[in-house]
Amino acid sequence: MRGPHNIIRLIRTGATLERTGAMAVVLDAFDAPRPLRIVARLLAKPFQWLGYKGDPSMPPAPRALTALGPAYIKFGQVLSTRPDVVGDEMAQQLRVLQDKLPPFSIKKARTEIEKELGAPLETLFSDFSEPVAAASIAQVHKARLAHNGEDVAIKILRPGVERAFKKDIDAFYLAASIVDFFAPGARRLRPIDVIEHFDGVVQGELDLRLESAAASEFAANTKNDSGFVLPQMKWDYSSRRVMTLGWADGVPLGDNDVLDAAGHDRTALGERVLRLFLTHALRDGYFHADMHQGNLKVAANGDIIAYDFGIMGHIDEYTRRVYAEILYGFIRRDYKRVAEVHFEAGYVPPDKDVDEFARALRAVGEPIFGMDATKISMGRLLAYLFEVTERFGMETRTELILLQRTMVVVEGVSRSLNPSINIWDVASPVVSDYIQKSIGPKAVVTDLYNTARVLTRFGPRLPRLVEAALIQQANAAPPDRKPFWRWIVMSVALGSALGAAVFAVIDALL
Fold first, then answer.
1. Most buried residue, 56, 306, 393, 488, by CB count within 10 Å?
2. Model-level pTM?
C-alpha cells in the first residue's frame, strides 16, 4: 500500500489538481490546516507539468477528477453524497460530475460476455448494439434474447477495472495516512473512514451480482406499488461482471416537452416520484439513492420506470421510526417533541438541555414554514437540522446523510416536473401513515408479538443455560445466597413459559 508507485500516483494527482486549479478548491473544501496545505503544495507545484489538463469547460474539481480517470470520478461521486465531509458548495459541484468516458470496443464487450456466461454471443443474443452508455465502472448495450426476442439491457464491467481501482484505492489510503501524519488537526475529517466508505461502495459496484441482488430485492419490495415498475432481472444472463435486465422502454423523465407531447400528467408524476421515494425509505428502509432524471423513465401507460441500482440506501427499522417522528414533529411544528425524540434516540448527548435544543429547532423550522408553500424544501430542512444537531454534539450518521442527499435530488426531479408542487402536502400522508402503522397501538402489539416469539423460540434452552451460568457464580458465593440463585432460575423458566402464553394470545389477536 505504501510502495513507490503509490507515491508517484499521489504526485501525479497533486500535479493535476494544481494544473487544473483545483488544489486550492479541494483544500478549502476539506478545511485543510496549514501544515497539510504546505505539504500538498510542495509535492504538487514543482511537478505540475506532470499533471493532466482536463476539460477547461468544467469546474476545477470535476475537471481534475475526470482527467485522473475512473477511480477518481467515482470518488468524486461518492464525496458528492457527503456534504458533511466536503461542504455543501463542493458537494454541489461534484454532483454535476460527468460520469461519461469513452466506451471500450464491442469486441472486448463480446469477449467479456462470452467468458462470463460461458457461451458464444450468437447463441445468447440475436442482436447486440454498440454501447448506449459508458461510465467509470461499466457500460451498457442493448440486445435481444435469442430464445424469445425480448429486448434487454446488458451492463458490462470495464476490462481490468478491478485492478485499476485497487491501485488507486491503495494510493488513496496512503494519502489519508499522510493527512493523519502531517496534520493531526485534520483527523476530525476522518480521512481513513472516508476512504473506507469509498472502498466499500466501489467493492459493491465491482461485483454486479450484488447490484443484481439489489435490483431483485427492490423489485420484491415495490411489486405492489401502483404506477411504479422495475426492469425484470435476467439471472440466466447475469454473473459477477455482466448484469442483464429487461429493456426500459419509455420517455426520459427529464424531457418535459416529450412528456407533454405524449399526454402525461407532469403534476401527477412529480407527486408520485416524491411519494414513492418516501414510501420506500420509511416502509421498506431500502431506497434508490440515485433517483435523478437519467435513471427514471415514463412508460406509455404512465408508469414510472427506475433503473441503475448501483447506489441503494438502507435504514434500519429503529432509525426509520426516529426519522418519521422527527419529520412528523416538524409537520405539526411540535419542536419540543422533535427535541425529545433526538434525546430518546441517543442522537444528542444527555447532558445537553432539551428546551434549549427545542428552541434551536424552532429557529430551523419556523423560517421554512414561513415560506410560500411551493418553496418549502424537506431536503433543506434536513440539511439545517443536521447543522443544528452537529452543534449539539450529534455524530454524523452516514445513512441519514445519504437520505438527505437523495431527498434533495428527488425534490429537484419533482419540481422540474411541477414547479408549484407543495412538498408538505405530498409528504404528510406518507409520513402520517407510517407513524400510525409503526408507532401507534398496532405497532406496540406487533413489537410484543415479536418479543414473545423470540422468548418462545429460546424458552426451552434458556433455563438450562442461565442455570449453568448462575451455578458457576453461586459456587463462589456464600452458602446462604444459593437459594436466591435458584429463585432466579425458576423465575426465568416461569418468564419463558409466560412469554409462550403471551405469544399465543397475541397470535390469536392478530
1. 306
2. 0.73
